[in-house]
Structures are given as structure tokens and as C-alpha cells.
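[step 3/7] fold_predict: job queued, chain A
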Amino acid sequence: MAAQSPQAGGGWRGLGAGLGRALLALLGVGLVWQGATAGLGLVSPARFPAPLEVLAALRQIVFVGYANATLQEHVLRSVALVTMGFAVSSAFGVFLGLAMGASRVVEALVNPVFLLLRPIPPLAWIPLAIVWLGLGNSAKIMVIFFAAFVPSVINSQAGVRQIEPPVFEAAAMLGLRGARLWREVLIPGALPSIFTGLRLSLQASWTTLVAAELVGAIAGLGQILNQAAQDIYPAMIVVGMASVAVCGWVMTAGLGWIERRAMPWRGR
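[step 4/7] structure written:
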């Protein structure tokens, strides 16, 4: 059996140490939380729940259900919508941003319309999405599209503009044009900025989805928050917020994994 490299071993040790520190920090926060709520009564349970109340709410939604579904069903619905909206808008936004950065003609044609749409908050599209597409998933995907579209366009265009002019001169000398220019110059050169835009787009997607699900959703993490607010159920509100945080963290970590594989030259 091949021996494990020191670098790999160090990576696993570093991961274990980081997880240990995170667990200790979580334990400390939990103790302070328990003391401030149930222990000393510094915070009213009607305003913010104690940890045991949150655990009870978590058991309820996992095993019994709440707001028309179990937690697993809420999570799957929201993750699916975010993934679809984020994937479509990011693909289109990255392509458009690269085209605008590479061609002054494309920028002159597209930029005026983009500058008009850019200041519109994503949530402002919700009424129009409902009028056009109703209260189903299509309306939510439309809103997510506009939320994730702007950061991906801006950062992709900026990534192309940050490529040094000698790189384009060398590409012209080598006769790189069309698809080869995109594949060998534009996309690799703009990748760091593209992934910055994708991270911002993913964050905007989650923020917008939860807001969109507050209106007319049958299930989803936003529906948990909406129903819990109507029921004045602070513990379930915390469960919904924590679920959004965990889902967002997992998807961001997955995007980071893709980024490291796409740009191995940047290291870890």
C-alpha cells in the first residue's frame, strides 16, 4: 500500500482541527444561549426560544411535519428551485458577460438594456412573475434568474477586462479566433472573477428564493418561516433560518470544490 503523503495527512489533520474548533465554538454558543434564555431568563421565550425548544421543533418537523411537509421535503423543494434558477441564470449570465467583455459591439448593443435592468431589486420581479406565471415553481425560478443574473454578468465581463493586453496580442499572433480564443484565453483568464460572480449569484439565489416562498408557496424553507411567523412559533422560525444557512453553506462548499478543480493552479 502506498504511504500517505505528508501534504495529504496535514490536510486531513487541518480539517479535523478546524472541525474540532467549530464544535467547541458551537458548544460555547449553545451554553451561553441556554443560560440567557432558560437558565437566567434574560431573554423572554416569546421573543427567542431556548435550545431545547428549538430541538423539539426540529424533531416535530423532521418526524411529524410542519407547514404541509417534513423538513426533508421542504429542503429538497428549495434546493431544487435554487439549483435550477442558479444554473440557468449563471450559464446565461457568464456567457453574456464574457461576450460583453470580449466584444465592444456586443457591449454597445446589450449594455444599455442591462443598465436599465440592473438597478431593479430581484424581489420587485415577484408581482410580475406571479401575473405571468402564477404561484407555481416557474415564477420562483424567474425571480431567482434575475437575482443570480446580474452578479454573474458583471464579474464575467470584469474578468475578461482584467486579462492583460499582451495575452490577446499573443493569441492574435498564434491565430487564435472564435471558439479556440474563448476556450484557451477568455474563459481561463476570467475564471477567478467568474467564480466570484457565481458565489454572489448563489447567495442572491437563496435570499430571493426564501423571500419568494413567503408568498403563495405550498412547501419550501420560506414557507416554514411564513407559517411559523403566523403561528408565533419562534423555535420553528429558528429551525427554518438554520436550515437555510446549512443549505446555503453546503451549496457554497460544493461550488468551492468545483472552483478548486477548475483552477488547480491556484492551490488550496
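[step 5/7] annotate
The chain has a mean pLDDT of 84.
The chain has one domain: 41-266.
exit 0
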